């Protein structure tokens, strides 16, 4: 799992430009299934099994995009101005490095503020790729970059950029490999453009028209000072009761809870006051679907160094495998 | 001897007259009737089908003349930012709220037309003589402004009536001055494009409503049309002015005289890269000036369209214009003309092959 | 006039917070069952009550949507035997100190919302207004017992008992939007003995207070030709006196604005005039703030109107309504339905096309 996670996180693929990560995931699952398609917005859709009398059509989504940067202007002196793709927090930017999809690398810094204690808005930041003027600058308006940060193995826990949401991608890939039998038609969606507003999941959900939907994503944790939230790193997958964008179907919550208990998989309940996931748009697709979400606890979300606990990832694979291999009883 | 048509389309008197009519008409979001009827008159001779849907979008179809056509939707919004009367004081004075994004600093000492009968009104302000000196530096909030239609006209306006700026269209040199150039420039362009559509295209023109208050019309229009792809024509602000601190302006959004602005990314859409590349290629091949709008905030109808049904590849092209969402906008004839030319040329060569590769 | 008071009071006695509407849905279903031909529940839990047109040929359909979910609170963390909370729907935290609530754990547990006492706070926080981060619920249970009964994600509802005030007023929590559910029920009663030209689907939607998920999905599924949303609006009273508020007991408000089809404004005002019914025009310049926002943009678009019942003190535990406004709203809806005929869709087109 760690090796897979490293490959996934070290692939630069911000929202709307998911081709590299899509190709990687496609190759990882090619041994298991050939029922793979790519849709208009760039979602990778993998179907396993057929819907039996006891089964449902289940959509399981994990977004594969990451937050990133897009060039808005190259200054006469060669400094590259950019805008955000998804929720980039300016406080994490200066001193970091950006890697463009064409391979160009640069360092990020910002205009000198009047007040050094204030965090500036994103227009005040730039990427210096070593150009001496706009004439010799190898990037242009519209070019896309991701944050450049390598994967670090700390043993039980690992650190990297884009663990949001490549950790869920790794979990989904292993789950796909894990599931031997299912009464369901399982439609796994490695969704595009989640970070810019759950856009990929919206069109995929419409097309798939599932009975039940699960989103797999990361959730911030409450185990650092100042955050009043119950979820802790290492305490198991978090079953989402609600977040800012939706309330999980209580029947789905109970089903996940019971499955975890029955299979002795540690779990925790999640009430998140900020942010949301693909599940919010899946719930309201067409005539609606029974919707829930399982979250992987993750510290420092949307920073260049996010942290997850490998036990949580492995337990999420176990939980998903148990959920998706058996008939679903909602009550 | 046959007359050779001009190599490229040119803006002439017909187009300018139409733009004048369109910008002088009122179409505040939610009340686009007047603009819609002007559009209807223009498209009728060129359309195979004209429908007005539940929200007031005008959906115009021009059928392809070949089998297996490309279903192409082109959208321009008819609505504009404006005001709505919400309460009545005495003596012909009315309170109002802003519909769509208008900076309240733009409102004082302007004239407006209220209601279907276009009753003239004034947004007045306190005489400077009566203002305390510190007061001169504070912004007057909309809540304390009133529209004055004159004590004698009291019964001619009612709560719920819409009001629009009373600006009249002007043409000076290569510049156009009018209210609501956002997006009557797009509406007029779409009317022009509809006149000559290549045979291989099933052309689905959506003159949309309520763009300024949440892209509402485009969403249902796209659902109804269910096209293979969509191109949105809008107008985007040109902030191509010098910065007071003399530093380089890195936030210009787009520039006048630089041609149609192709969208890369805005708050609502990451334009389909295949369509961006295609438009860029068309512009280069035909030597049409073009620019990329700076990626960032803002948005167009594409934000709603591309997420419709199973996803619709979409891109937006805007005519640059200064001072959007104010009483008077400023745009260039040449930019408008080049926008129309770019899209006409794009229609000639666009085909299913344009989208045959995977996205990005 | 008082015959609907017990029903309303029973609605106000149930929780049914957004996303968890089963308790209230069951109660409404029981009341509607004899009034409709078919009762069903959407995947998300919205209740659909169908009254079929009395005609052999295919008839258009009208959807009347009233949301049945209520605002409330949710446990977000359990700390030192106290419950930390977040809100479900928009709640002003300043109404919460001293509020009696019910915690829906494994069983129903009473609790009190309170503030951290001043003397335990750093000076800069002393005497500051209540915010969710300094509010908690004390259930009086020992921590060990509390942890057995309550977990993160459990719901908390207002425990305020509803009551009737003399002169035909009712007060309680969740009048938003149970007042409208009652109005729709009044309407169903009124038309009980009428033949209908259109199919009518009375819908009690879920999750309006959060995402309008119920309206989004039901409108898409039912695809009505017309829709009416019934919700509450601000009654004039303390803190509500400008153009956005309407006199209590002086009839429903008829919405006008971008979410509303102009022909329906004309239709409803004309009908109200014919009935000699008092009403207000409610301007909604941008958005109605109701389920109609979702219904209007569903699929290819659905023309709709918003009719609102004025209530005081919206989104508190002591909202207040005049029964006459509920009855008038119900009668106005009934009149609209019984006036629909097979040509009724034409008037929409005339308006938009003229």
Would you report the number of β strands of chain B? 17
Q: Which CATH C-level class of the largest domain in chain A is it? A: Alpha Beta
The oligomerization state is heterotrimer
Q: How many domains, in number, for the residues of chain B?
A: 2
Radius of gyration of chain A, CA atoms, in whole angstroms: 20 Å
Specify the number of helices of chain A: 7
Main sheet overview of chain A: 8 strands, mixed
Query: SSE order of chain A in H/E notation?
Result: HHEEEEEEEEEEEHEHEEHEHEEH
- Structure summary, number of beta strands of chain A: 17
Largest interface: A-B, 33 and 25 residues
How many domain regions of chain A?
2
Average of pLDDT of chain A: 96
State the CATH topology of the largest domain in chain A. Answer: Aminopeptidase
Give the N-to-C terminal Cα separation of chain B: 49 Å
What does the main sheet of chain B amount to? 11 strands, mixed
Helix content of chain B: 10-25%
If you compute it from the alpha carbons, what radius of gyration of chain B comes out, rounded to the nearest whole angstrom? Answer: 21 Å
The CATH topology of the largest domain in chain B corresponds to Aminopeptidase
Topology of this protein?
The complex is a heterotrimer of chains A (331), B (360) and C (354).
Chain A: H1 2-9, H2 19-29, E1 36-38, E2 44-48, E3 57-63, E4 68-74, E5 80-85, E6 97-100, E7 105-110, E8 125-128, E9 144-148, E10 152-153, E11 157-160, H3 163-178, E12 185-191, H4 199-208, E13 212-219, E14 238-242, H5 250-262, E15 268-271, H6 279-283, E16 290-297, E17 306-309, H7 310-325
Parallel strand pairs in A: 3-12, 3-13, 13-16, 14-15
Antiparallel strand pairs in A: 1-2, 2-12, 4-5, 4-9, 5-8, 6-7, 6-9, 7-8, 10-11, 11-17, 14-16
Helix pairs in contact in A: 1-3, 3-7
Chain B: H1 13-24, H2 33-43, E1 49-52, E2 58-62, E3 70-77, E4 82-88, E5 93-99, E6 110-114, E7 119-123, E8 147-148, E9 162-165, E10 170-172, E11 175-178, H3 181-195, E12 201-208, H4 216-225, E13 229-237, E14 261-263, H5 273-285, E15 291-293, H6 302-305, E16 314-322, E17 329-332, H7 333-349
Parallel strand pairs in B: 3-12, 3-13, 13-16, 14-15
Antiparallel strand pairs in B: 1-2, 2-12, 4-5, 4-9, 5-8, 6-7, 6-9, 7-8, 10-11, 11-17, 14-16, 16-17
Chain C: H1 5-11, H2 22-32, E1 38-41, E2 47-51, E3 61-67, E4 72-79, E5 82-88, E6 100-104, E7 108-115, E8 135-138, H3 143-149, E9 155-158, E10 163-165, E11 169-172, H4 175-190, E12 199-205, H5 213-222, E13 226-235, E14 245-246, E15 253-257, H6 262-274, E16 280-284, H7 292-296, E17 304-312, E18 319-322, H8 323-339, H9 346-353
Parallel strand pairs in C: 3-12, 3-13, 13-14, 13-17, 15-16
Antiparallel strand pairs in C: 1-2, 2-12, 4-5, 4-9, 5-8, 6-7, 6-9, 7-8, 10-11, 11-18, 15-17, 17-18
